Fold each of these.
Amino acid sequence: MRWYARELGADEEAWGNAGLLHDFDYEQHPDEHPLWGMALLREQGWPQDVIDAIAAHYAAKTGVHPTTPIQRYLFACDELSGFITAVTYVRPSKSVHEVEVKSVTKKLKTPSFAAGVNRDDVQSGAELIGLSVDEHVANCLKAMQADADKLGLSGVQ
């Protein structure tokens, strides 16, 4: 999210926070996600655009569809970033630096791989931001490779 914010001249802090916080409540409140988290963030005074982006990443539950850039990009990055992480974890090196666009797109065509990832959301997310899946994968890879150490995706030593 921060990478796309920089590319688009958007608020990197807000976009980064939306990306970081959008699923924070899922483990402890899966049935109430993201409503529980949104309520807590609202109570704590988080900016409304961050809360709205979190709502839009799960429109089926919240009824908020992604319309603003932060909302569209969060939706687009959500499933794909998790999928790229899964592709990284199955590599012997566990390094995102060795993941290529073609590796990700090939795995996307294998329904049994990371079966919990909604492939339709990956496709519609890319369309929502006006990119092909390959272009979006390439961008997300660049972003994740740039922050591989922070993400724990630099590989085994």
Note: The chain has one domain: 2-151.
Amino acid sequence: MSQAHYDVIVVGGGISGAAAFYELAKYTDIGSIALLEKYDDLATLNSSGKGNSQTIHCGDIETNYTVQKAGAVKRTARMIVKYCLQYGYENKFMFAHQKMAIGVGDTEVAYMRKRYEDFKEIFPYLEVYEKEKLKEIEPKLVYDANGNERPEPIVGVGVQNEYSTVDFGAMAKSLVENAKTIEGKTTDVFLNSEVLEITQEGSTHRLTTRDGKSFTAGFVIVNAGAHSLYLAHQMGYGHDYSCLPVAGSFYVTTKMMLTGKVYMVQNPKLPFAALHGDPDILLGGFTRFGPTALVLPKLERFHGNKTVIDFFKTLRLDKKIITIFYDLLKDSTIRNYIFRNFLFEIPYFNKRLFLKDARKIVPSLQLEDIEYAQGFGGVRPQVLNKAEGKLMLGEASVNPGTGILFNMTPSPGATSCLGNAERDVKLACAHLGKTFNQEAFNQDLTD
């Protein structure tokens, strides 16, 4: 069995793993770094252009964000923009689009007006779009199929020219490519290298892969989506956490519809994002509507059923998990939402039900205007916290303090990738007695 030693090994070649790999190479004096990726290319799962809504989530139009969360996410979202501008990726895989959140009906309109007042200090570029302005910049929001104005009041809050859209799969590949150009560093990437087991051996960890390789490292960062918790459990860590994989599906329009991103007010009772429309950069700007939210008993979406067993091992079903499920399902709003999203996956019913919801954004939308986006959507590893008895809505990390981290990053994990990597790379440096160049990092990636 071949083996190699590195100062740090990153497990997972999605956007989060690629960000950690890049920052280890560029902003530390760590000498040798390896990236182990399960499949034959980087970013083939949730980070691919098809696996998410391609959105830089900074909190300006995401109505489920508090002022405090928006302030924190804004910093990490800006890092995405700064990185892409630094290397000239604008209009290659990062694009500026109009974006807004809309309120429809008296209650939502009042909410959006108040939200604008609460958030305009953090996001001074935000504008309020009354119906007359919407007719000019996003007319599909206003008129029905007969050309009549929608009867209910509507208002938008947003911006017309901010970097908002990224192909995170392309960005992940660029991060790895740029890391490998840094001189004086060993930056090795191993594809088709699924990690089957991690064991601790004194001050190091040994990683064994399916292709028969063995690696050791002074520090390990596991960014393997839902499999991060699977590997943590395998080592005896993170047993207070369980994983609920939630798959998101999308529908795409068959012609040009919206000029930018349009989000809706999220129901505060629902733990998942409200339906939104986005110009898809892989589909020539045609609008992609979604996501739906379907709980799937597998850790990966489009790889058959080979991760079903992994799901049950990671779920670790017990009374605490059953209690969390019961508490979620006893609420009729959540229960009906789950059932409706299940119907979104059933042929014939799916398009008709989805069309009804999407018409809240585009009243003129017809059945022939949309089609199910085959192969689009990923799986978010929503974390269940057994100790607190609830579903966690943000990111979760298991840090046993032994030189290994396990990260689970549901939305906005892609947006937060460089900020999360900053946190993890600092931990790696502290553990190894190395230095993180905060000054260079701030100069490149923060304002």
Note: The radius of gyration is 22 Å.
Amino acid sequence: MTTTENRPGSTTVTEVIDWSAAPTPSDEAGWLERARAVRRILERDAAARDRAGATPYDEVALLKEAGLVTLLGPVEHGGGGQEWPTAYRVIREVAAGDGSIGQLLGYHLLWFWAARLVGTPEQIEAVEADATRNRWFFGGAVNPRDQDLRIRDDGDEIVYDGRKSFSTGSRVSDVTVLEGVLEGTDTHVFAIVPSAQDGIVFHDDWDNIGQRLTESGSVTITDVRVPWASAAGFVDKVFQPRVYNTLNVPTIQLVFVSFYLGIARGALETGAEYTRTVTRPWLHGGHDRAVDEPYQLDLYGDYQSKLWAAEALADAVAAEGLALHRDAWNVTAQQRGEHEVRVAAVKARATEVALEITGGIFEGLGARATAAGLAFDRFWRNIRTHTLHDPVAYKRREVGARLLRDELPEPTWYS
């Protein structure tokens, strides 16, 4: 990696790896090894970077140079040619090193892929080619809890105006995905626009307890113009609907699952290393090493078992989703609904396991591990912050409704 020059407020990633000297990975094993190399770089100073909370220019440069931003891109344009099950595992690896950067990568890959979910075949080909060749990093201003952006039809163009509370990726993105409603209709329109333009103002007001480097603050959109030809899925100003359009929600929920489980693994493995090397045995326990304490063995055994189970479920659900992605134009409402129920189940389980591990790991560390400089609390803060994105109780309800009443969830922005 060649680090970017230090901009004002930029963090510094000091590891130097010449990624260009190594062959581009051609299979999942190769991409996972590359993701682990990125993780090893990020985790070395993750606590300090979390504390600084600076804009992660260097971290995004690392993702680009390692090739992870084009993981899903076409091989003929220089991309990795991989599919979602691999992408989810790569996100997990990166999130184990730094939860914020895992989230940024996950959101980027979703928006990179969004043309395939919503666009026409011609738009898909054009967007994926340009995004891969230019190594675009995607952000998105599509928070459905806010009032929709307003869109007016101006002949050959549409014009976006409004404000969103969250815009993950903001200043580190090359392009931003916008979504709004066409005036006088209930028609939603997605489009990809350059992030650096006068009509997009990022307010740098993300100041939450966790996921501090995700650049998720608010944004104001003023008179941002897009050709009708770039309105995703529209032909002659008319949307071409298909069931596959609604798979964006199960996909983003599995992205969430991926960085939740990655953060949990980061907490577990970082905690285990601290327990092996620093934690002292209890003076009345009769053991010379902390790793011989029965309660330590029980704690870590319990957490590892729960994490393995959640990861296995996540992998199984990802494989089920891959079958739908591969038959994109023929997905039925029944197939979509059944998949969403399984996604809801793994989202609920990943949330619970990640909160338990990141909060409970302190039992295996000891009081000295609460020192601010170690920042072991960052794992819990990161999980606690993002798992409030949408209530997990509604995920469990979807599963219960399927089991008890044979009901499938209707597609919404969250299900």
Note: Residues 160 and 224 are 5 Å apart (CA to CA).
Amino acid sequence: MLPTTLRCPAVGRLMFASFAFSLATSTLSLPAQTPSDSDKTSNRAQVSTTRQTPTVLAIRRAAPAVVNIHGQKTVRATAAGMAGASGPDSFRQVNGMGTGVVIDPRGYVITNFHVVEDVDDILVTLDDGQTTTAELIAARVRNDLALIKVNVDRPLPTIPRGTSSDLMVGESVIAIGNAFGYVHTSTQGIISALHRDVPVNESQEYHDLIQISAGINPGNSGGPLLNIDGEMIGVNVAVRVGAQQIAFAIPMDQVVDIVTEMIDEHNEKRLLTGLRTNGGPRDGDGVTVANVSASSPAARDGLKPGDRVVRVGSQPVDDRLDFALAMLNVSPGEQLEFAVERGGRQIDLAMRTEQPPASSTASTVEEMAWSRIGIQVRPVAESTIRRLNTRMRTKYRGGLYIAGVRPGSPADQQGITTGDVLLGIHGWQTSNMADLAGILEHPDMQRGPKAKFYIVRREQTLFGHLQIAAQADSSARR
């Protein structure tokens, strides 16, 4: 059946695009003669416009914005015959890689979440061969999408964005990715079908995917699917194992909507603006102020419902993703310049952002953590985090020290113990108490799913899966 035979591009049953591999040394036979300089000049002259096909031009247009993502990740080391073992008791390091797409010249890159999941240090190789590090900014586990920020000091080329709203079965498509580590491998095919719902396993299913015949291999995950104009129309995500030319991509309009929501959620935790905006997923859809909260910075500084935002700082705004990206580098208390269209004319405004109030009091967060997870936590000192980062060569921004574990609780069942440092749950970081409150109050967590957690124990990063209680258990109160 399909759920047992579908795999993301990877080595292993459900490892997606993170895999280990090695390349054997091989001997290549070279031609006995090489062309002369005059022959090379003649050959270049013969590269006629008929050879520069739409496929060639499309790849040339998009390839500079495609990056290689690689690094090590910690995985559970389950011994043979112990498939049912639970708890973060043993682990091993494997090498993984995938692909990403630059969507903002400051270095913001879209990829699949499974490409960067559990990766200790995310490394990114750019189109020009430069390798640098990256930081996970936001993720949506259930949609298998992530946004990372590449550490660069220069503008990067960005992918031309298309739309998935007008795709046609049979039209030509191109995939670019790091297939089996061969960077910038390009393949071509057609759109085989639209609106596919594809189950992966009992707990994960992709919805409304594009089915394509282009060759997708391990390492392609997170890379772009292009139309013949070189515009990105999707993110390559999965293949059907055992079949030929059956692969899948997340449609671009869906990607833009989800990534925009991810960034908005991330920004709302950091900034208080009082703005709510409307807009579509495509370039040119624009951004309109839908609501301005009373007594908010937006209301105080003159923004009004109906204003069309055309610029934030120095960045033009053509859609909601542009707006969300423009807000990423803004700090609380910073004055931000807006250009808006109102009544047929452009108006320049300045808004000073604020620090958002805590979503819950500390005592409420502690109560939720104790009743729903079974842990007593407190913030870890910055000096401790710096020491961990130095010794482990990591870049954790914070964590929560486990000061107590309730017997019989989900945390106790998963082997969490006093002294562990909680780093994240369900793809979100737990740098402070406000982060934990946001996670426990999130609609995804209210339904009580199993959520992956990450801890540091004796300078080792481990993970497991918690069955978080859907509601606080009164019997668990201290």
Note: The chain has a mean pLDDT of 81.
